[in-house]
Amino acid sequence: MNVTAWTFVLVGLSFALYIGVAIWSRAGTTGEFYVAGGNIPPAVNGLATAADWMSAASFISMAGLISYMGRDGTVYLMGWTGGYVLLALLLAPYLRKFGKYTVPDFVGDRYYSNVARVVAVICAIFISFTYVAGQMRGVGIVFSRFLDVDINTGVIIGMGIVFFYAVLGGMKGITYTQVAQYCVLIFAYMVPAFFISFMMTDMPIPQLGFGSELADGSGMTLLEKLDNLSTELGFDPYTDGRKSTLDVFFITAALMVGTAGLPHVLVRFYTVPRVKDARSSAGWALLFIALLYTTAPAISAFARTNILTTVADMPYAEAPAWFTNWEDIGLITFDDKNGDGIVQYRGPHATDTENELDIDKDIIVMANPEIAKLPAWVVGLVAAGALAAALSTAAGLLLVISSSVAHDLLKKTFKPEITEHQELLTARIAAGVAVVIAGYFGINPPGFVAQVVAFAFGLAAASFFPVMVLGIFWKRMNKYGAICGMITGISFTAAYIIFFKFVSPELNSAEHWFMGISPEGIGTLGMLINIVVSVVVSLTTPEPPEEIQQFVENIRVPADAGEAHELSA
Q1: Interatomic CA distance for residues 467 and 479, integer angstroms
Q2: How far is 48 from 60, CA to CA, in rounded Å?
Q3: What average pLDDT score do residues 468-492 get?
Q4: How far apart are CA 14 and CA 175, in angstroms?
Q5: What is the CA radius of gyration of the chain?
Q6: Is 425 in the same domain as 317?
Q7: Would 550 be classed as within a structural domain?
Q8: 48-62, 170-184, 523-537, 554-568: lowest mean pLDDT where?
């Protein structure tokens, strides 16, 4: 069978599995819809969290970023994995002991204010829609290449699948669906990595092949050859960093604290039975995530080496099938500027000729098996894995949006008298509306996948992380500080990103950034502003009520670790 046939078979089988699981685990109560009934085992929750976490940015785009950025791209590896350490130490067990459904629920009850709850809902929805835009673009890319449809049609197909199992199954259905999706995506990611590592270095383990000597008899290691190829063609050396140390620090910190502030990740720790299980599930998630994240640098180097040796100075008439397939959907563009029919692929430092080729960063992982001439079934498997990664995260984000609307806005704020059945119906309607809006952003994305996701992390870092950590560890933090901090942090960060990425993109360079901090890293500064505003406002306004301060003490005390503390709004 050819690539298209294998893709139809493997994607179809995986979709049938997801839908079957959603039907089997259909949510019947609000508790099952929001937090899967609170009885998911830690290892299972770790698998689901890993799938929820490893989005299209991790599967599709991260290796592409590292392929183009070289050493600078490792900020994504450090930030996205380091964030789980913060989760396990600072947030997971305390949130589980709190025992509520959602992050805005924590904010509203801890800060004894429906205004704070509404601000948190707005932040959660804004962050989630920013994040989900990247996932839906990833879905569109996969469908457009491997199922012979345009990107817009691919997004619409993905919308239908997500709508079915997110709206029907809720968190219970999503949890077990994400377990299946993790198994699909990790298998799809690792199999081609094993193949290519063995082909290029005689070492089947990609993490070791990354630093091994090439099997071509040159006597060079993979990274030595990649550095030489890069400099010969006018690119920066692959192993050199170009970003300033300050910007690297700020991007890494924004991704780390953004991880610990993402609402769709935080809500996963409400789904386990006991407080200690929350910390345990964070550890399991980190282990499952590490399988992919330690493989990504190797895939990046393999793909970059193969691309530079394949397409640089290649006669266009002899272009391989993978090249023309991606060119047909507009993710590879060739402009023969000198009319010689040769593909000149050059970097900014090239002096011999102009660059004539543009390769979209988001295709690297999916094109890699074809570039390496792996069997058609491997290519189809990667397509199924990419869809699993994008759809699993999209479902978690849509659930955050629906629960924020139905539980936090309607039930907790504007209409507390509604029944559980009405709340569940509202949540499903909200999820359906959110799917439509997410599809729009997938069709009209604000950037490539990992870039959009990085913005979401910055927004989460600037809004939720300070209010969560201060709310747990500082009794003096009050509602005035929380409200002002969240508004200031997310407003500053969003304004900075919007200005440089959309209002004045011609100024989007290090010489124009504040202190050389890129839009991807500005969330760290937004977080610091949030903390300063929160502390100053809290210290100059009345203390929280005594029962709230006692509540904070109860959250931190490890006694009765198996019980969740409840506080009525």
Answers
A1: 10
A2: 19
A3: 93
A4: 16
A5: 24
A6: no
A7: no
A8: 554-568
Q: 243 with 335, same domain?
A: no
Lowest mean pLDDT among 274-278, 528-532, 564-568: 564-568
User: How big is the chain, counted in residues?
Assistant: 569
Q: Of 430, 452, 474, which one is at a domain's C-terminal end?
A: 452
Between CA 348 and CA 76 the distance in angstroms is 24
Q: Which domain holds residue 344?
A: 306-358
Least confident of 35-44, 53-62, 382-391: 35-44
Could you give the CA distance from residue 465 to residue 433 in angstroms, rounded to a whole number? 27
> 511 Cβ partners below 8 Å, 6+ apart?
none
Over residues 215-219, the mean pLDDT reads: 84
Kindly indicate the confidence band of residue 563, based on its pLDDT and cuts at 50, 70 and 90. Answer: very low
Dihedral through CA 501, CA 265, CA 483, CA 557, nearest 10? -150
- Please check whether residues 169 and 230 belong to one and the same domain: yes
Residue 471 is assigned to a structural domain of this protein? no
Q: Which of 457, 390, 440 is nearest to 127 (CA)?
A: 457
Which of 27-31, 163-167, 288-292, 436-440 is predicted least confidently? 27-31
Name the amino acid, one letter, at 549: Q
Higher pLDDT, 102 or 423: 423
Angle (CA) 85 87 89, round 5°: 70
Place 170 in a pLDDT band, splitting at 50, 70 and 90. Answer: low
Together in a domain, 317 and 189: no
The two tokens of residue 125 are 């929805």
Contact 83, 258 (CB under 8 A): yes
Same domain, 103 and 163: yes
Buried b (16+ CB within 10 A) or exposed e, 504-541: eeeeeeeeebeebbbbbbbbbbbbbbbbebbbebbeee
Q: Mark which of 410, 430, 452 sits at the end of a domain.
A: 452
Q: What tokens does 203 get?
A: 């070492």
> Using an 8 Å Cβ cutoff, are 49 and 270 in contact?
no
pLDDT of 511 > 60? The answer is yes
Report if residue 172 sits inside a domain: yes
- Are 91 and 129 contained in the same domain? yes
Q: What is the pTM of this model?
A: 0.78
CATH of the domain at 299: 1.10.4160
Within 10 angstroms of residue 313's Cβ, the number of other Cβ atoms is 11
Cα gap 306→303, rounded to integer Å? 5
